[in-house]
Amino acid sequence: NRALLDNLLSIFVCLNKKIPILLCGKSGLSKTLSLSLLSQEMKGIYSRNEFFKKYPGLFIIPYKGSLLSKPFEIKNIFKKAKELNEKQKNSKNKNLIVILIDKIDLIEKSPYNPLKLIISELEENQELGFIGISNQPLELLKLEQLKINIILVQEPELQDLIMTAMAISNDINK
Fold first, then answer.
1. Is 50's pLDDT higher than 90?
2. Residue 53's CB: how many other CB atoms inside 10 A?
3. What are phi and psi of 102, to 5 degrees?
4. First-to-last CA distance in the chain?
5. What 3 state SS string does the chain have?
6. Whole-number mean pLDDT of the chain?
7. Residue 13 CB: number of other CB atoms within 10 A?
């Protein structure tokens, strides 16, 4: 599935380079699945796959946005991420601390304006990974302020869906 592969590559590169990323697309386009698959594989030196042993493990701090999200909630997430990052500085198997904000499009519409705090926290905390997931596009002006890598996830073509269904079917029949 092309969307899944694009998401996996984009998330992998952006997280390892500590570039904030926003995955934007309709529901069902593998945005959350992509991150879930990567987090299962990226376990640092404990990874099953030799390739992933060269990279840090992922430690994800999730937050689900809503129309009622408040700045103090965002502040607490970044505070927790900074504390975890600080605790592991001398550890042999370091993890990349990743803040995941799902439904960031709802946060944008919150009357408490927590998106403004996300912008300032991202500028101050460049040692953390950041992923925003959105089903709706954010306003262009706010995206420019976020200074974030935006991935617009496209709907799969019929051929992608057929290939995905065949791959799943083959795995089930093994």
1. yes
2. 14
3. -85, 150
4. 20
5. CHHHHHHHHHHHHHHHCCCCEEEECCCCCCHHHHHHHHHHHCCHHHCCCCHHHHCCEEEEEEEECCCCCCHHHHHHHHHHHHHHHHHCCCCCCCEEEEEEEECHHHHHCCCCCHHHHHHHHHHHCCCCEEEEEECCCCCHHHHHHHCCEEEECCCCCHHHHHHHHHHHHHHHCC
6. 84
7. 12
What is d(CA 54, CA 168) in angstroms, rounded to the nearest whole number? 29
Q: What is the pLDDT of residues 116-139, one digit of tens each?
A: 888 889 888 889 999 999 888 777
Higher per-residue confidence, 166 vs 80: 80
In the β-sheet with 129-134, what is the strand arrangement from edge to edge? 57-64, 95-102, 129-134, 21-24, 149-152
Q: Which residues of 76-105 are buried (b: 16+ CB within 10 A; e: fewer)?
A: ebbeebbeebeebeeeeeebbbbbbbbbbb
Tracing tokens 């705090």 back to the chain, one arrives at 117
Q: What are the structure tokens assigned to 111, written together?
A: 């009357």
Span of 61-65, 84-88, 128-132, 165-169 with lowest mean pLDDT: 165-169
Q: What's the one-letter identity of residue 61? A: I
